[in-house]
Amino acid sequence: MSQKTTQKSAVRAENERMILKAAEAVFADHGFRGATTGMIAERAGIPKANLHYYFPTKEALYRRVVEHIFNIWLDAANSFDESDDPVEALTAYISKKMDISREHPMGSKVWANEILHRAPVIQDYLETTLRDWTASRASVIERWIAQGRIAPIDPNALLYMIWATTQHYADFNHQIDTLNGGRPLTGEQFAEAKKTVIQIVLAGIGAAPVSLARDASARASGDTEAAE
Amino acid sequence: MSQKTTQKSAVRAENERMILKAAEAVFADHGFRGATTGMIAERAGIPKANLHYYFPTKEALYRRVVEHIFNIWLDAANSFDESDDPVEALTAYISKKMDISREHPMGSKVWANEILHRAPVIQDYLETTLRDWTASRASVIERWIAQGRIAPIDPNALLYMIWATTQHYADFNHQIDTLNGGRPLTGEQFAEAKKTVIQIVLAGIGAAPVSLARDASARASGDTEAAE
DNA sequence: AATGATCTTGACCGTTTGGTCAAGTGTTCA
DNA sequence: TGAACACTTGACCAAACGGTCAAGATCATT
């Protein structure tokens, strides 16, 4: 009786993990209403009734998936605080968020779906954790502005821009792939995109020098000689 | 017999308009699977059977809604070509896309939902119209780079950044509102956000001066003083 | 070996959904 | 006036869905 309450049996832990993994994929592809418990069970390789043994309702399962995603988001958020230097902090944050979009696109999609539909399940997170985090980082950005380290811009608009752009590579990856000839971005292409995003944001707020085309140097591999 | 084929009866035109308007709102709020024809009919103020008289299937109705949205998107896309000057062209384009997000958030949400779920209905648009438009504008951007008018950046990444950021104000408006104390952005707040987005993008690609807090003047080229 | 707890599963059920249908009501025009 | 046509609508149906259940299989503990 002691072990069971503290440590869910290994079978249970393993099955919950498999189900949650399958659920994330199915919810990402079809949304909450579009996903069926049958689809999730099939993807997890178990009968539907077994899924309902571990997760009584579809909503409980969905909530667990969203909570997991929110934790990943929070994890990335910490990289904002790695340094008090705007260039270092924003580079680390954008870089981490881009990595998550690449490695965890399904989680991002579930989150996007939830917000799109007015956050019926996770509104409380938005009003507590997310609101606090955002307000605190906005004030960091305002301090940078006051110190003259970056140009005066709307801090929230900057944060939204970073969120929107980085998450776009997960949420809209189907569109990006289609525009890339139907193939996913290669590692090099993704690295180039990440570099561009960081460069535009940093230069955009006056936190890094803008290198115009003419002066050579530049380690840039993408040589811009183009049309002749 | 002549008039009927060329001009749908006024009744039909008016009813289709009302249904499409209701459908856009319901699809935006609930997604394709989440929306029911019953909800749409109720919102349009007609019995469900009447809705099916005008639109035989839910999918046909959905497709009409998405087509309408795509046309709005294309309309905005034209503002990219208003000028060959990077500053003017991008300012017009971003401005127009922000306005659409403000005035047409539901359309944007339907589009986002469709891409999120791998574009089951409008994949053909992505592969034709959207692909052509994007390739052509990417080459305009590449020319600007070759002419040294903007910094060398990945053109697609720039376009994605603009799409992501501007559409974020529609697709994620619930999150933005929540972080704004539960209230929608005022006109002034939205104008400020728009200004910030334009400023960051233009400065980010070296197409506009970065004005640091202290020195007011100068579009100075060599302004790489940064941290002190 | 026995006992209780955990886990598995096919069959089942009430509800919701997209869509149909037939019986109507208006409307147009010869 | 009347007949062809467009529109309206309550009632209905088969399929799909989330969830239940009871009977069995497996496992841990003594």
Automatic annotation (TrEMBL), chains A, B:
Keyword Phosphoprotein: no
Gene3D superfamilies on file: Homeodomain-like, Tetracycline Repressor, domain 2
Residues of the signal peptide: none
Domain of life per record: Bacteria
InterPro entries noted in UniProt: Homeodomain-like_sf (IPR009057), HTH-type_TetR-like_transc_reg (IPR050109), HTH_TetR (IPR001647), Tet_transcr_reg_TetR-rel_C_sf (IPR036271), Tscrpt_reg_YcdC_C (IPR013573)
Pfam families in the cross-refs: TetR_C_3, TetR_N
Entries under SUPFAM superfamilies matching the protein: Homeodomain-like (SSF46689), Tetracyclin repressor-like, C-terminal domain (SSF48498)
Keywords, in A-Z order: DNA-binding
PROSITE patterns recorded: HTH_TETR_2
Keyword DNA-binding in annotation: yes
Gene Ontology molecular-function annotations: DNA-binding transcription factor activity; transcription cis-regulatory region binding
One of the GO BP terms on file: negative regulation of DNA-templated transcription
Chain ranges of the HTH tetR-type domain: 13-73
DNA-binding region(s), residue ranges: 36-55
Protein name (database record): TetR family transcriptional regulator
